[in-house]
Amino acid sequence: MAPAPAEVSAPVPEEKEKKSKAAKFRELAQALSEEALDVLASLMRDPDVAPSSRIAAANAILDRAWGKPTQPVAGDDQFDALKIVIVPGRQVEVGDGDGVAGDS
């Protein structure tokens, strides 16, 4: 009778191993989420903590709860909007929003 073949396990691809480590790390971090939030909240409420640190803690809490606020793109209210016209094969012309630069 021939001996049974030795059991061989396939090597785990490096990419799978990395994902597995990342997933484990994420799980560990998520397990600490409540404690981290408690730390931020206590810093935010502590009058002995520097105001800049209290603000940073409050912002961190708000960013995680509601997401970071978007930054609107706006010009200066004193001036008209800047208009840039790009014409293929021509140089870029800059105008004041009412027409092409150089118009009188």
- Give the DSSP E fraction (strand runs of 2 or more residues): 5-15%
Low-confidence stretches: none
- How does the helix and strand content classify structurally? mainly alpha
Could you describe the largest sheet, including whether it forms a barrel?
2 strands, antiparallel
Task: Tell me the number of strands.
Answer: 2
What general outline do the C-alpha atoms trace?
Answer: flat
In round numbers, the mean pLDDT is 77
- Count of DSSP H/I helices: 3
Please state the CA-atom Rg, rounded to the nearest Å.
Answer: 29 Å
**Strands of the biggest beta sheet: in what spatial order?**
1-2
Distance, first to last CA: 102 Å
Task: Based on the model shown, name its key terms.
104 residues; mainly alpha; two-stranded antiparallel ribbon; 3 helices; 6% strand; flat
Q: What do you see in this structure?
A:
The protein is mainly alpha-helical and 104 residues long. It has a domain at 16-66. The protein is 45% helix and 6% strand. The protein has helices spanning 14-31, 33-45, 51-66; strands at 83-85, 93-95. It has a two-stranded antiparallel ribbon. A hairpin with a 7-residue loop joins β1 (83-85) and β2. α2 crosses α3 (51-66). It is flat, with a radius of gyration of 29 Å. It starts with 13 loop residues before the first helix and ends in a 9-residue tail after the last strand. The mean pLDDT is 77.
